[in-house]
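Batch manifest, entry 17 of 40.
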Amino acid sequence: MRKEEKRMKFEEFVEEIIENMQKRVPENYLVQVQNICKNNDLKLTGLTIGDQNLNIYPTIYLEEFYKKYEEGVSFETITDIIWNTYCQNAPKGNWDTSRFIEWRNVKDIICPKIINYGANRELLNSVPYRKVCDLAVVYYAVVDICENGVASILLRNEHLKLWGKTEADLYELALENYRRIFSITSRNLDDIILELMNCKEDISFDENTIVPMIVVTNNKKLNGAAAILFPDELQKIADKMGADLYILPSSVHEIILLSTDNTMTVDELKETVCFVNSNELRQEEVLSDNVYLFNRHNPSIEIVS
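Output type: structure tokens
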């Protein structure tokens, strides 16, 4: 009986993937796996495939593919998908690492992102960060932006030592870069839902029955929760609504704003956030279970008790 017919365990699955990929790649290519710690202390198994003459390799995480295998997708189909994924994302040449040595080469590509403080204690020991409520601002350098996403490098304490810089040197600079590289966007949640449903019907809010919710992210919809760091952007929305704002941490990629004049209680809002975090998001996408308040008269953010 073939292994795939008796349902391989994850460790066996990984070994079979390595063996299969080694048969597909040219002689000078590297195929290996490594354990990688992602956001919220999520440990994943990363498959690395690449030309050993290059200094950059794409990483493909295998847990999601194993889920497909458990759901009945054939091993052959999965290996074909993995190989095609690599081929579509294979680097065309070396990345110029010398760019990272000089501060002047990186200062204009450093951006902030928001993660949960408590769930990333181990990571925060090795990276520059700033605590905001129960969240942490960390920093990354944008290496490339393409249709498939954003290639980036998380900044670590070693980088700051190399450049002779501090976290305070990064913060305001990173905010400026974020505005320039990723424009902040805000849209009504109902408009987004209609678009996803391919609905052409025009709707307008009935203030007596509908709670307007504004989704704030960036033009790439990646790490868009960093918008919480821009009080002037929140102020515009608060002034338009004529009230303070509740901030729902929808994910690390976006936040949802709604007026404090809405009919939902804080407990109901928090229950909604917790439900989405537990049932709709991947572990690495969760930002926080808390609800925040933006005070428009004294622009500031705090956790709502």
